[in-house]
């Protein structure tokens, strides 16, 4: 089966099938001598990619800069 046929059969885009092939996520597929991929008919569809957000880096309270009014008397600077 070709990439186009697999895309229709599995309900995925051709580019996603190509990505899965290059990443080795369809183990029964092989690249033919003329640079085309061949996927056996009974191959199961690959597992979908897990998507999610990466956790944000926690902001440290010590990174807040405190600067007072600069009038010669109050020039306190906190931790940087």
Task: Please give a structural write-up.
By secondary structure, the protein is mainly alpha-helical. The protein has a domain at 1-44. It has helices at 3-10, 14-23, and strands at 30-31, 37-38. Strands 1-2 form a two-stranded antiparallel ribbon. The longest helix has 10 residues, at 14-23. The chain starts with a helix and ends in a 42-residue tail after the last strand.
Low-confidence stretches: none
Q: Quick one: overall form? A: globular
Task: Report the average pLDDT across residues.
Answer: 76
Largest sheet: 2 strands, antiparallel
Give the CA-CA distance, first to last residue: 60 Å
- Would you report the number of β strands? 2
Trace the largest sheet across and list its strands: 1-2
Total count of helical runs of at least 4 residues: 2
Q: How much beta, percentage-wise?
A: 5-15%
Structural class: mainly alpha
| Share of helical residues | 10-25%
- What's the Cα radius of gyration? 27 Å
**SSE order, as H and E?**
HHEE
Labels describing this entry:
single chain, 80 residues, mainly alpha, globular
Task: Summarize the topology.
Elements: H1 3-10, H2 14-23, E1 30-31, E2 37-38
Antiparallel strand pairs: 1-2
Q: What is the structure about, briefly put?
A:
The protein is mostly helical.
């Amino acid at each position: 089966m070709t990439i186009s046929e697999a895309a229709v059969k599995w309900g995925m885009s051709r580019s996603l099938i190509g990505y899965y092939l290059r990443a080795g996520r369809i183990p029964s597929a092989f690249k033919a001598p003329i640079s085309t991929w061949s996927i056996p008919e009974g191959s199961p569809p690959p597992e979908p990619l897990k998507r999610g957000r990466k956790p944000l880096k926690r902001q440290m309270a010590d990174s807040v800069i405190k600067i007072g009014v600069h009038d010669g008397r109050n020039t306190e600077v906190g931790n940087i």
